[in-house]
């Protein structure tokens, strides 16, 4: 899968920002991104974060026969793997031009500079020597892979410990870490690569270019140097012609950056050594935040809060007075919305609602009048019928009218007539 190309607008924006000495991440021209170094639980495992670029280096060793040309020296082997996890532009199982270039540059930086004593890796002359293998895996690609790979490789080599061996006659005994303490490699110096990108045919220069800046650059210069200001390797790519003054200027900048990075590496190695000796959490386990669901976290952005109150007062004083609110005019057409600055938002429905409320009030009054008229009519009917009672219930049911109710006098009269009827019936039966 090929990487997505930049649009012309993005390219012009980046070049214009670089011409104004501004960068997307807020850095200055010669600033490096934040470097973080952590170690794994085993010796020789190192993680390096250069901004968002993440690299892991793992060092391993094994006993192999030496080369015929150099029977008394050990073997150094470097391998850089660009996995699709780091960037969609990388393909699995296919060596790209970028990986070949990074491998060659790393070999020049570490092996050809004689930073490691290869003769100390010899066990039996002409028969067995130690082969040191450095595997560098790219975990995330955000530009400047060479600098991150060189820092991770040299830090992993300084952190690595090889097993101790003993020779008795023709037998070679390799001791485990539990039997004997492993032995560190003898390293003379630490070469570190520093990358410089050039824009507009060498007019502008940037240190530690990001991934987007690498896309629009015209040329790249990589200088590998140690803290003693000794240039170990230098490589220019991109087909740009550089002047002598430009190369000397880049070398001076590289000497300052290399001394700072070397000090950071030594401090990280010392902290890891103290943590392992104390028996506490060390390596990659220490960098993992505990009691959290996710392991990743974002750094807090620093915000200045010193003169906030003074600035707020200045803003309030310099602010313009609020405009006077204009009363909302009457909307001529109902159902038309009115929204504006200083105006009351209306929808032209207020008049209709008022009319409906008035109609509701009028209807309520009419109903009350009807109810009162009905009561009067019922009273009149009751009076005319003489004794009829009208009862109006409070429930939601209709009116209940009782016609010819039973009075106590009527009840007694009814009982007497019934008794007389019963007596006459008895007499008839006797007859």
Quick structural summary:
This protein has helices at residues 8-19, 97-110, 145-159, 211-216, 244-278, 284-287, 308-318, 350-385, 408-430, and strands at residues 35-39, 45-50, 53-64, 75-82, 122-124, 128-140, 161-162, 165-168, 171-174, 183-184, 192-199, 204-207, 219-225, 231-237, 389-391, 400-402. It is an alpha+beta fold and 431 residues long.
Structure description:
The structure is a single chain. The chain has 431 residues and is an alpha+beta fold. It is 36% helix and 21% strand. It contains 9 helices and 16 strands. Strands 1, 2, 3, 4, 5 and 6 form a 6-stranded mixed β-sheet that branches. A 4-stranded antiparallel β-sheet has the order 12-11-13-14. β1 and β2 form a beta hairpin. α2 packs across α3. The termini are far apart. The mean pLDDT is 79.
Main features:
431 residues; 6-stranded mixed sheet; 9 helices
Distance separating the two termini: 129 Å
Number of strands: 16
Average of pLDDT? 79
Which structural class should the secondary elements be placed in? alpha+beta
Number of helices: 9
Sketch the topology as an H/E string, one letter per element: HEEEEHEEHEEEEEEHEEHHHHEEH
What kind of sheet is the major sheet? 6 strands, mixed
Shape: elongated
Low-confidence stretches: none
Q: State Rg.
A: 48 Å
Relative helix content: 25-40%
Strand percentage: 15-25%
């Amino acid at each position: 899968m090929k990487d997505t190309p930049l649009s012309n607008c993005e390219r012009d924006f980046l070049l214009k920002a670089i011409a104004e000495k501004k960068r997307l991440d807020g850095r200055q021209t010669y600033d490096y991104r934040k470097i973080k170094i952590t170690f794994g639980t085993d010796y020789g495992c190192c993680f390096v974060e250069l901004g968002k670029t993440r690299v892991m280096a793992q060092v391993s060793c094994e006993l192999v026969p030496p080369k015929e040309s150099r029977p008394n020296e050990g073997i150094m082997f470097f391998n850089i793997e660009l996995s699709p996890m780091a960037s969609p532009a990388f393909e699995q199982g296919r060596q790209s031009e970028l990986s070949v270039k990074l491998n060659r540059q790393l070999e020049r930086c570490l092996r050809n500079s004689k930073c490691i004593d290869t003769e100390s890796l010899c066990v039996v002359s002409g028969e067995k020597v130690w082969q040191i293998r450095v595997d560098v895996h790219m975990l995330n690609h955000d530009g400047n892979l060479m600098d991150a790979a060189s820092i991770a490789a040299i830090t992993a080599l300084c952190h690595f410990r090889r097993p101790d061996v003993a020779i008795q006659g023709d037998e070679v005994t390799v001791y485990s870490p539990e039997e004997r303490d492993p032995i560190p490699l003898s390293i003379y110096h630490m070469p570190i690569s520093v990358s410089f990108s050039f824009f507009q045919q060498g007019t502008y220069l940037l240190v530690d270019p990001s991934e987007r800046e690498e896309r629009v650059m015209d040329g790249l210069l990589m200088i590998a140097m140690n803290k003693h200001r000794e240039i170990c390797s230098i490589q220019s790519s991109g087909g740009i012609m550089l002047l002598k003054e430009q190369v000397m200027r880049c070398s001076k900048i590289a000497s300052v950056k290399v001394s700072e990075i070397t000090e950071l590496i030594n401090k990280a190695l010392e902290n890891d050594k103290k943590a392992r000796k104390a028996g506490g959490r060390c390596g990659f386990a220490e960098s993992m935040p505990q009691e959290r669901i996710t392991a990743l976290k974002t750094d807090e952005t620093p915000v200045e809060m010193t003169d906030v109150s003074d600035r707020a007062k200045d803003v309030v004083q310099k602010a313009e007075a609020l405009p006077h609110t204009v009363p909302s005019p009457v909307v001529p057409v109902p159902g038309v919305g009115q929204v504006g600055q200083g105006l009351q938002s209306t929808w032209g429905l207020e008049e209709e609602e008022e009319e409906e409320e008035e109609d509701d009030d009028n209807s309520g009054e009419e109903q009350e009048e009807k109810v009162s008229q009905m009561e009067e009519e019922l009273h009149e009917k009751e009076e005319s019928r003489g004794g009829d009672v009208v009862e109006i219930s409070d429930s939601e049911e209709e009116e209940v009218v009782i016609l010819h109710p039973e009075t106590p006098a009527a009840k007694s009269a009814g009982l007497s007539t019934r008794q007389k009827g019963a007596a006459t019936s008895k007499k008839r039966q006797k007859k």
